[in-house]
Every structure is written in structure tokens, then in C-alpha cells.
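Entry 14. Structure prediction run on the chain below.
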Amino acid sequence: MKAVFPGTFDPFTVGHYDIVRRGLTFTDEIVIAVGVNEQKHTLTELEERLNTIRQLFEGESRVSVAAYDGLTTDFARKVGAEFILRGVRSISDFEYERNMADINRHLTGIETVLLFSSPELAYVSSSMVRELIHLGKPVDEFLPNS
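Output returned:
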């Protein structure tokens, strides 16, 4: 089975890394899909984001990284994924993601698997890390080591 783990992931946090590692326990392959959106402000250029994530999974042949533009479900079909893997941090996240999963399944037939972040990582989000960077605060503990 093949999954797509979507998002812009700028920066790619320990929470994202946790979800991918845990996803590998029940699927054969995961494509980490880095969204391309010209209107969205990012901390790093696309190639830098792609390379950073590739380095984290260097030597793990079951993980690949690709840029995509458009709908996640279209990209999942393009790469032959059977499902989309999503991480959730809280019950409210879960409710939102479950509703989106139902809509995706109904409209496209693509399934979504929701995984709760590990409890110690549930508070880590890309937006929180971006805010800390903006404030000049250290963020190394929130980023996976390469």
C-alpha cells in the first residue's frame, strides 16, 4: 500500500516526522507531498524544503518527497496512492479532518487515515514554530535531526 502525506511543512517538525515514521509501520511506501502555492509565504524556497525532508529520510527507501500543485486527492491518484495520511493533534483537529476525509471519500473515492500525534509532540505545529522563528526564539527542539 502507498500513502501520501500532504502539506507545505515549512518547517517540517518533529510531529510530522513522528507521523511519517508511525505510518511506515502499516504501509509499504509514503510520498511526502510538499505543496506549491505561490501566494503562501514560506520561510524557505521549495528546493530547500524538499532537500531538508529528503535528508531526514535518507536511507529509508520507502519514503520519497515530491512537490505538488493543486488538490491532494489528484496528486494521490497521480502517484498511485491508496490513501492520504493525516496527522491530528487534538480532538477538534480530528473532527475537522474526519469531516474532510468524508468529503474526499465521497467526491473522489480516496481514503484518509488519521493518526494522532504522539502525546509529547501533539503541541508542535509548523505555525507555532514559524511564530517562534519570527520572534527570534530557539526552535531546534521542534525540528527533527538529520
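The chain has a mean pLDDT of 89.
Filed with the rest of this week's runs.
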